[in-house]
Every structure is written in C-alpha cells, then in structure tokens.
Amino acid sequence: MSFLNELLGRKNPNMVMQPLYDAIIAEGRHLDWYEQGGVPDSLDGRFDMIAASLCAVLIRLDQTDEARQEIAWLTELFVTDMEGQLRQIGIGDLIVGKRVGEMMSALGGRLGAYREALIGDAKLDQALSRNLYRGEPPEADRLDFTTKNFADFYDRLTQIATDQIIAGNIGKAAP
Q1: Which is the most buried residue in 4, 39, 45, 126, by most CB within 10 A?
Q2: What are the tens digits of pLDDT across the range 125-158?
C-alpha cells in the first residue's frame, strides 16, 4: 500500500504522524507526572496521562484549519495503539472493540473538559482532578505541580508552529 501511496503522491498517515504520536507517548510516560505529580502509576493512570497529553496537542492543532487531516490521523494512531495495548495485556477479541469504544468516549470527554480549561473559563485543576486523578486528587502540592506543568506544556504548544508540532517537536511538559 505504501508503494501506491508514493506512486499517487499520497502521504502515509502513519509515517507523517508517528513522530508526533511518539512524542505524545513519551510525554505521557514522563516519570515526573507520576513521581512529583502523583498521577497513579497504573494502566489507568498511564492511559489518563497519555490521553491528557494527546488532548493538549489536539486542542492546539484544532486552533488552525491547516491540521484537520492530521488531527484525524493522530486520533487513528491513538485508536490503533490502544487496541494493540489491550490485546497485549490479554484482552480477548470479543471485548477489545467495546473497550476501545469506552476509551474513545473517555478521550472525547477529556478533550471537552481540557478544552474548556485551557481555552475556556473552567479551572484546569478541577479538570485534571476529575479526569487525570479520577476524582481523587493527590496532595495539593502534587496537584499544583501537575496543573502548572500541564498548563505550561499547552502554553508552549501555542508558541510552536503547526508544522513543527506535526513533525513531533513538542518539547516536554514535566521538568
């Protein structure tokens, strides 16, 4: 298929978006989120942190019309990765589709909450508490760490050119 894409001059979405997706995954796995920010170091906690990082990037990319296709490709990579992760931990074929659907629903809810907190008038610490910590926030200094660094991450994304973000040059949120 990649031969046909090259022949027809089409971009391969996996090749185009993989560096950005890899950078998002690296951000979501950064140890400071878990050690200093108190994000639960569990399957759910890791999903929540990766989803939060993905949401920040999607919100930033959504600020420009030039990245519509890339947003779709990035979301497809997330779905494919989550499906693979579920299979890797032993979730059977009959359940994978349902779980992926639940994850996409969770991503959609988080995307709305983070959008409202990052570019709307909702409070980021409340959105993080509800979605990242699943309603059980850590000690105040840990929540402050996460809130500050997540806001700084998004602020840095707003300063980066769209083509650089798509290339995977997103920096890192946690120190």
Answers
A1: 39
A2: 999 999 999 878 899 999 999 999 999 999 999 9
Which one-letter amino acid corresponds to residue 100?
Answer: V
Classify residue 40 by its DSSP letter. -
Rounded distance between C-alpha atoms, residue 14 and residue 78, angstroms = 11
Structure tokens at 19: 């560096």
Question: Helix 43-61 vs helix 68-88: angle between axes, to the nearest 10 degrees?
Answer: 170
Q: Is residue 57 a contact partner of residue 74, using CB atoms and an 8 Å limit?
A: yes
* Main-chain phi, psi angles of 161, to 5 degrees: -60, 145
Q: How many CB atoms lie within 10 A of CB 48?
A: 22
pLDDT tens, position by position, 12-55: 666 789 999 999 999 999 999 999 999 999 988 998 999 999 99
Check pLDDT > 70 for residue 84.
Answer: no
CA-nearest of 140, 146, 141 to 127 is: 146
Which H helix or E strand runs over 2? Answer: helix 2-8
CB-neighbour burial class of residue 166 (10 A; exposed 0-12, middle 13-18, buried 19+): buried
Query: What span, in angstroms and rounded, lies between the C-alpha atoms of 72 and 69?
Result: 5
Give me the phi and psi of 111, to 5 degrees please. Answer: -60, -45
